[in-house]
Design goal:
Layout (H helix, E strand, L loop, with lengths): L11 H7 L2 H4 L3 H17 L5 H21 L10 H13 L12 H37 L4 E6 L2 E7 H26 L18 H7 L9 H6 L2 H28 L6 E2 L18 H24 L14 H24 L1 E2 L1 H9 L5 H12 L3 H18 L8 H7 L13 H7 L8 H14 L3
Antiparallel strand pairs: 1-2, 3-4
Helix pairs in contact: 3-4, 3-6, 3-8, 4-5, 6-7, 6-12, 6-18, 7-10, 7-18, 10-11, 10-12, 11-12, 14-15
The protein binds arginine.
């Protein structure tokens, strides 16, 4: 395709380092889409004759059928998907195929195809994140009244509703969705018509190609248009952030499923056994989500490192933009589906959760709050008194709710002739009615709002 000025061919290693077809074949649909938009515009602008344009369109449609059925042929000699398609077009319609590349370069061609690909990828991600959000809402609703320990420092802190806990992840995913949507909005401008880097002297209609490809309009600087890859970095960054959320969720499932916790049991569908320990049921899928999340962020770093030192406009380094995005997208897709499957099918062991919530004097804050509210004791003093009460219970091996009013009175004489508050985990949870708090009524409200938002 470019051999005019060369006497000899490339060495085999040159071919190998140069070729992107082994991976960029994934752009075939988007490349054909871009070519169809371009050729229709060339004909409308009388840059090529409409007979030729029609031949090219029919040829491209045939290639579309062929590749759908048989996949994309990989020939390193043809370098990349753009040349592979052009070569096949030439075989089908002859030299007329050569008119397709009028007023176009592979630089704006690849920028266009890759943008379209990433846009499709974002749409896929948005659909599967929506599915995961629905799954989470469902499990949250079922488990509003199940109580588990809320932790800080992985030490039992205060009891919380499991519905509330699930909904915390729903909130993270909402922001992830937002990040993908805004990445999509920024991405949705067309580089096509920027040609190699400087634009072209042909009288193009860039609005026409932009609109027909579903873009909001043409990009306004040709140098930027062929060399910008922030749309790919935006995708990777949104995916990394979201995968990080999934990784935290996975980590909790791993902890919850371990025997000393026993908060949840994983379904057979999402567990594996051990080849030596017959009793084992391992949360491999959750561990892999946690691991994949690291690799996804690694791909964000990989592309940032590729791009950071490049002068304008196109450099071949940029061919390395695709593997990180493809790898991250594949891993991320698996992570979302696996999380959804695991959450959907895990069994909640409410008794163990409640036991856990009841341990570690998790309602101590409720006692301190009561001293403040009912006895008008400053919070710092209340904190101190409660600390002494906890120490007493620990020594006596009783729960905080079992402490007598005499004991409390002996700790602080102001606690006299009063009825003690409900220090059960249920009492604690239902008292936390502040906006965003864990009281079941609040959680119910949040779930209703989320259902509405998700069209459920
Ligand atoms: N395969 C190339 C890539 O993905 C296409 C662009 C090639 N452009 C060039 N000027 N050699 O980056």
């Amino acid at each position: 395709m470019w051999g005019g000025r060369f006497a000899g061919g490339p060495s085999s290693v040159m071919q190998e380092i140069n070729a992107s077809i082994p991976f960029d074949k994934r752009l075939w649909k988007q490349d054909i889409q871009g070519s169809l938009a371009h050729v229709k515009m060339l004909a409308k602008q009388d840059i090529i004759e409409s007979d030729d344009a029609n031949k090219i369109i029919v040829g491209l449609e045939q290639i579309f059928e062929e590749f759908s059925e048989n996949g994309v042929p990989v020939d390193l000699m043809l370098e990349d998907i753009h040349m592979t398609i052009e070569k096949r077009l030439t075989e089908i319609i002859g030299p007329t195929a050569g008119r397709l590349h009028t007023a176009r370069s592979r630089n704006d061609q690849v920028a266009t195809a890759f943008r379209l690909w990433v846009r499709d990828a974002i749409d896929e991600v948005l659909a599967s994140l929506h599915m995961l959000q629905c799954t989470i809402i469902g499990r949250a609703e079922e488990n509003i009244d199940v109580i588990l320990p809320g932790f800080t420092h992985l030490q039992v802190a205060q009891p919380v509703s499991l519905g509330h806990h699930f909904m915390a992840y729903y909130e993270m995913l909402r922001r992830d969705v937002d990040r993908f949507q805004s990445a999509r909005d920024r991405l949705n401008m067309s580089p096509l018509g920027s040609a190699a880097l400087a634009g072209t002297g042909f009288d193009l209609d860039r609005d026409m190609t932009a609109i027909s490809l579903g873009f909001d309009g043409p990009m306004s600087n040709s140098l930027d248009a062929v060399s910008d890859r922030d749309f790919a970095l935006d995708y990777l960054s949104a995916a990394s952030q979201s995968a990080l959320h999934l990784s935290r969720m996975a980590e909790e499932i791993i902890i919850w499923a371990s025997q000393p916790y026993g908060f949840v049991s994983m379904s057979d569908q999402w567990s594996t056994g051990s080849s030596i320990m017959p009793q084992k049921r391992n949360p491999d899928a959750a561990e892999l989500v946690r691991g994949h999340s690291g690799r996804i962020t690694g791909q964000l770093n990989a592309l940032m490192m590729v791009m950071k030192g490049l002068p304008l406009a196109y450099s071949k380094d940029m061919q390395n933009d695709k593997p990180p995005v493809f790898e991250a997208h594949d891993l991320f897709g698996l992570c979302i589906i696996s999380m959804s499957g695991m959450i959907e099918t895990l069994t909640v062991n409410a008794d163990n959760m409640r036991k856990g919530a009841n341990s570690g004097f998790s309602t101590a804050t409720d006692l301190a709050d009561w001293l403040v509210r009912d006895l008008n004791i400053p919070f710092r003093e209340a904190h101190h008194i409660t600390g002494a009460a906890v120490a007493h219970c620990e020594a006596q091996q009783i729960e905080l709710s079992q402490i007598s009013s005499e004991t409390l009175k002996s700790i602080d004489s102001r606690i006299d002739g009063v009825t003690l508050p409900d220090l059960s985990v249920e009492g604690s949870v239902s008292s936390r009615t502040s906006y965003g708090g864990t009281a079941p009524n609040r959680v119910r409200e949040m779930i209703q709002a989320a259902k509405k938002e998700c069209g459920l």
